[in-house]
Amino acid sequence: MDARGFLGLTQSHNPYRWVLPVEQRLCVGGGFLFGGCGLGAAISALEGTSGRSVVWATAQYLSFANPGEVLDIDVTIAVEGHQITQARAVGHVGNREILTVNAALGDRPDMPQGQWQTMPDVPPPDQCAHRVHRFAGKGWIDDYLDERIVKLRPMEARDGTPGDGRVLMWARIPEVIQGVDAATLGVLGDFVPMGVGDALGILGGGNSLDNTLRVLHLVETEWVLLDVQVHGVQRGFGHGLVHMFAEDGTLMATASQSCIVRYWKT
Asked: What is the H or E stretch that residue 19 is in?
């Protein structure tokens, strides 16, 4: 299965419209579509319509889509050049806009290449503990991700003492066995809110306001190392980024986010 199959995204008779049934397994425990799944679906739709690979895609989250609803994703090709396409995707339930994604797509393989960000020295996934979620076993998105903790404070240690703002975690989508693509990284990149809760030392996290995925180099890998770095929290909003590395140390993408800081309901 690929990421599109995992998400359940299909193209309609109109090549510019895609359809995403909002199933519970794509939603967070609060009962709405996980932002990473929304971005991943939009990326897949943009790539499917344009025939090109995403360079960057930025999502603005506007409203919530709930289980049982259907998210229509409409793609607009704004500019199509020889090597680069500029496009956007608007996801809506009826006339309620859920998210808007702007993106650039293309490939320029003959240009010089390099990587300067290096992967931290961490143990492999099979030597790391499973992350246990609050809503484990209830059919939400967390049950369909496999996460292994390298550096993350347990819930009982969150006493309001600030941390260093960094979380390290291996992650994968076990059902996606045809290789990590940009849509997969869109799903896995939505973890700055988790990092904000850890950084503040609170039983909480946040709701994403946005997410920008910048794709560098996709390689074969089963696991993705998420290096979450929270830059700061002020005025009730948290800001940070995620470096996403393949198991061989290749930096595949970065994701940057802002979120509304929230305490969990008990």
From this structure: strand 17-21
